Amino acid sequence: MFKKILVANRGEIALRVMQTCRELGISTVAVYSTADAQSMHVKYADEAVCIGPPSSRESYLNISRIIAAAELTNADAIHPGYGFLAENEDFAEVCASLSIKFIGPTARMINQMGDKNTAKATMIAAGVPVVPGSQGLVTDLQEALETAQKTGYPVIIKPTAGGGGKGMRVVHEDSQLDIALKTARNEAEKAFGNSGVYIEKYLENPRHVEIQILSDQHGNTIHLGERDCTVQRRHQKLIEETPSPAVDDTLRKKMGDAAVAAARAINYEGAGTIEFLLDRHKNFYFMEMNTRIQVEHPVTEERYDVDLVKEQILIAAGESIEGRTYTPKGHSIECRINAEDPEHLFRPSPGKLEVFHTPGGHGVRVDSHAYASYVVPPNYDSMIAKLIVTAHSREEAISRMSRALDEFIVAGVKTTIPFHKQVMNSQVFRSGDFDTGFLDSFRFEKK
Ligand SMILES: Nc1ncc2cc(-c3cccc4ccccc34)c(N3CC[C@@H](N)C3)nc2n1
Ligand SMILES: [Ca+2]
Hints:
The chain is an alpha+beta fold. It folds into 3 domains: 4-103, 3-Layer(aba) Sandwich (Rossmann fold); 132-201, Dna Ligase, domain 1; 207-441, D-amino Acid Aminotransferase, Chain A, domain 1 (2-Layer Sandwich), CATH 3.30.470. It has 14 helices and 22 strands. It has helices at residues 11-23, 40-44, 63-73, 89-97, 107-114, 116-125, 141-151, 174-192, 249-265, 297-304, 308-316, 394-407, 417-425, 427-431; strands at 4-7, 27-33, 47-52, 77-79, 101-102, 155-159, 169-171, 197-201, 207-215, 221-233, 236-242, 270-278, 284-290, 331-338, 340-341, 347-348, 351-352, 355-357, 364-368, 375-376, 383-391, 409-411. The strands form 6 sheets. It has an 8-stranded antiparallel beta sheet, sandwiched between helices. A 5-stranded parallel beta sheet has the order 3-2-1-4-5. Strands 7-6-8 form a 3-stranded antiparallel beta sheet, with helices on one face. The mean pLDDT is 97.
């Protein structure tokens, strides 16, 4: 078992990982930029190393500085959290070459799943349903036209080197294809340094349903159910829940089995998530595979009564998950509390927290690094807390979430709390019958 783990991240996930390390008796090393000198994860860790100025490029994205901190403190493993270097194959490779255990899959696996076109080919080989479209990358207009005519409009052009919606273009007819292909390739080159794009049939307003996977180093793979992440704004997830209101037991088994087959096919190691698009006819299609712990992991932890960060660490240390069974129980919903102003296009609202009072009570969990007098820095993402609520049914979870949001008092910055309150009270959300277009048509009522 590891003696010391360096957490190469900040904010709530850094604290979350350190909490599990402390429970396992593993000492912790924090890395931080000068902007995070007063951050909770720095105070909480057994050791802390300042790795640079506020800019991510010179701190949390700087491989050599993080490795230097690991060597300096003699850490025997690194947990990357999510974002930053969590899916960076060079980082995983450098750790491996220095015999510092990267808590996650190998560099090869990160690479294989990071390239969306390669990931898709791998899924086809594993028998996982994928969206019909081009066989591989599309470079010239002629090939694009043939693919689009074979697939049928509308089609979507997607960058192979990244997810998250950047460089995507939806095309409805031949005349638009030339421009769309050029702009998609340009945007992809600018955003990812790789202009590779592929084409898929465009599914109108699907749901986003993802399956949590756990695979150990001994060939065992299990799934821990689904998370519905359909409530998103500009490709940013805002609300996640499990179970999905759109998934029944039959579909859950099909999606779970497909996700397990995919992980087995690539001999996956660690915690991973297979993201699917789910259409109105309950057909599901592979979208992406994430090779990291995700922001929304707590809803799965609450329903399956599992510490996913603990599982990651035990698996990285070589433990087997053979024979592990989980009985899912309850309905869990997460709201991401961001320091953003819902009355002004969710623009960031950094600043000092004059008041930070978190809700409590049975079935209420708050994952946060924030505290009263903490200054939310403008340099990083705006999430200051995750409010996770669990109850026996979806209806009960929604009313508990609504009550907890009322008690979540933050002053000094604007937050998404009032927005979440309105979503929880909306008929459409309560009906469970919505798709990824939900927020496009959701009007936030300014008070
Ligand atoms: N073939 C096909 N059809 C419709 C799609 C629609 C989306 C999409 C677009 C906009 C918001 C979304 C929210 C959740 C899930 C998917 C979406 C989509 N992606 C890919 C990256 C992800 N962040 C959004 N891929 C799609 N692919
Ligand atoms: Ca992804």
